[in-house]
Write a structure and sequence with these properties.
The chain has three helices and eight strands; from the N terminus they run H-E-E-H-H-E-E-E-E-E-E. It is of the alpha+beta class and about 130 residues long. It has one domain: endopeptidase domain like (from Nostoc punctiforme) (endopeptidase fold (from Nostoc punctiforme), Alpha-Beta Complex). It starts with a helix and ends with a strand.
Length: about 130
């Protein structure tokens, strides 16, 4: 597990949710959460823009993960792509305490302890070489 990324994500718990949001003050969505946590952990991040909340393009998210130094792994990745429903891919950051994610329903970044309640479509580990 990438400790810097996990700490940065945990530090964002409580930040408000905002679709296409990219900063603490305005709020973040799941893509913005990952981008902000990466920047705060000292990594580069250029997240996509203009996507819809509901879509089925998980391949685009996988390409973006690879472009940012993430390597696909079969489990225990730093970054997890889950499918709360078939047209709503959702990114989460794995930590020792659970999964940090931008929860649209609760309108804030939260920590989800325990196992994910959704199917996992992909996992990546940040290549910190």
């Amino acid at each position: 597990m990438n400790a810097q990324l996990a700490r940065a994500a945990l530090d964002l718990v409580g930040v408000r949710y905002r679709l296409h949001g990219r900063d603490r003050d305005a709020g973040v969505d799941c893509v913005g959460l990952v981008a902000l946590a990466m920047r705060e952990a000292g990594y580069r991040a250029a997240p996509p823009t203009g996507y819809r909340l509901r879509h089925a393009d998980t391949d685009a998210l996988a390409r973006i993960a690879r472009q940012h130094g993430f390597i696909e792994v079969p489990g225990n990745g730093d970054l997890v792509l889950a499918l709360p429903n078939p047209v709503q891919p959702h990114l989460l950051v794995r930590t020792d305490q659970g999964f940090v994610h931008a929860h649209a329903g609760l309108r804030r970044v939260t920590l989800l302890a325990g196992d994910l309640p959704w199917p996992v479509a992909g996992e990546w580990r940040l290549d910190a070489r």
